[in-house]
């Protein structure tokens, strides 16, 4: 059903693009036919990029994914730009209709010629198409440079109640949504690992969506994670994309092999001398479909209430459960900060926060924009990031 709805929606978008970019800007004939075929081909390429990777494999899908997903972004911004221009098009309709019925050649008995109204209509349509095209190409080009470039390295101070002064300055590197797959491979992981190690954190928290494929396909791309260096270790919780493979447990085992400790509805104590705080992790909501659902009670069991608790949970929306149980700080990803403006409004409608530090009841929530991207290799208004949280006691 999802595939049917998605195909129908993309088809409607392309019908609108055909009307404004092809039918309105050309006269019947060869040019219109060629442009129509090209647009249908772009739709087919996009659908192939969306639907075929699981059946053809990650490496083979890259040949479809790059052009298909880039066109996805272009089509989205072309649609938005053309919609923005609709009011102007309606305003100019009066100017178009004021044109005389025929040009001078027809009046003087010369051969039939296109009416001035048609010429003006074509001019207006072509000007709008050119403006929409220029704006879309510019935005997508900027967004691609941002998406495939290095993530921003952010430093964010966080004050925690009941934190022992021994942990003042304790640094947690938070990274999420690496999204290894057809468009991002081993070099992407190596850059992320290098940036985290250069920041010198005490602990690394990977909060889900590392991969978009199987261990057999992406094990080599994920392997540089074994080089992450932090005195208190590297910890991981599943995101929804870890459950898109047939055997989600395979990635949990692979993370352990790479020296990354999964927290599967469990917790551990992070100690500095006689002081400590609780670090817990819950499975992603998508795990419920694989008998691996989040279990907050189990994840937070036996924690010392006199010490603060830091919870790793992929989706920010899970903070309501965390707040109900007195968690001090939840670290999340999932949103990509919206990834492509203005589509972040849709993400914000279903999540309590898009990015950064906020508070829900008495629980602080930090949401990373993620170090990678999903779908179009484009980020507009939501640059990728890796964050180092610097902890201190709340006075």
Descriptors:
Purple Acid Phosphatase, chain A, domain 2; alpha/beta; elongated; six-stranded mixed beta sheet; 12 strands; 2 domains
Question: Could you describe the 3D structure shown?
Answer:
The chain crosses the membrane at residues 33-52, 64-85. This protein has 395 residues and is α/β, with parallel strands linked by helices. The protein folds into two domains: 2-146, no CATH class; 153-393, 4-Layer Sandwich (Purple Acid Phosphatase, chain A, domain 2). The protein has 13 helices and twelve strands. It has helices at residues 2-23, 30-51, 53-56, 58-91, 93-97, 104-107, 116-148, 186-199, 215-222, 248-257, 296-299, 319-324, 344-348, and strands spanning 152-160, 171-175, 203-206, 234-236, 261-262, 266-272, 275-281, 309-312, 329-332, 356-360, 363-367, 385-393. The strands form two sheets. The chain has a six-stranded mixed sheet, with helices on one face. Strands 6-7-8-9-11-10 form a six-stranded mixed sheet. Strand 6 and strand 7 (275-281) form a beta hairpin. The longest helix has 34 residues, at 58-91.
């Amino acid at each position: 059903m999802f595939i049917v709805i998605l195909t129908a929606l993309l088809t409607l978008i392309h019908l609108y693009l055909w009307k404004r970019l092809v039918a309105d800007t050309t006269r019947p004939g060869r040019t219109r036919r060629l442009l129509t075929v090209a647009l249908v081909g772009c739709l087919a390429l996009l659908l192939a990029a969306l639907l075929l990777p699981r059946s053809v494999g990650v490496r083979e899908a890259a040949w479809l994914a790059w052009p298909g997903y880039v066109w996805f972004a272009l089509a989205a911004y072309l649609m938005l730009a053309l919609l923005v221009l609709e009011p102007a098009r309606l305003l100019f309709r009066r100017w178009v209709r004021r044109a005389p019925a025929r040009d001078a050649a027809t009046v003087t008995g010369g051969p039939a010629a296109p009416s001035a109204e048609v010429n003006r209509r074509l001019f207006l349509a072509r000007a709008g198409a050119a403006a929409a095209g220029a704006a879309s190409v510019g935005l997508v080009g900027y967004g691609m440079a941002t998406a495939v470039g290095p993530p921003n390295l952010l430093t964010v101070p966080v004050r925690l109640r009941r934190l022992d002064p021994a942990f003042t300055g304790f640094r947690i590197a938070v990274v999420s949504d690496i999204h290894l797959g057809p468009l991002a491979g081993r070099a992407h992981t190596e850059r992320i690992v290098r940036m985290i190690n250069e920041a010198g954190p005490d602990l690394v928290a990977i909060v889900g969506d590392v991969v978009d494929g199987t261990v057999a396909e992406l094990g080599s791309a994920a392997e540089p994670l074994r080089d992450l260096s932090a005195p208190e270790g590297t910890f991981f919780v599943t995101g929804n994309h870890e459950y898109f493979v047939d055997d989600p447990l395979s990635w949990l085992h692979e993370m352990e092999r790479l020296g990354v400790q999964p927290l599967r509805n469990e917790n551990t104590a992070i100690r500095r001398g006689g002081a400590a705080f609780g670090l817990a992790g819950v499975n992603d909501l998508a795990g419920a479909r694989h008998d691996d659902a989040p279990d907050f009670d189990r994840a937070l069991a036996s924690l010392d209430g006199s010490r603060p608790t830091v919870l790793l949970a992929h989706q920010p929306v899970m903070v309501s459960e965390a707040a109900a149980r007195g968690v001090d700080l939840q670290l999340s990803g999932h949103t990509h900060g919206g990834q492509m403006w203005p589509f972040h409004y849709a993400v914000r409608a279903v999540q309590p926060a898009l990015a950064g530090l906020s508070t829900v009841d008495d629980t602080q929530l930090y949401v990373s924009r993620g170090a990678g991207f999903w779908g179009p290799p484009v980020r507009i208004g939501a640059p990728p990031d890796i964050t180092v949280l610097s902890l201190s006691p709340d006075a």
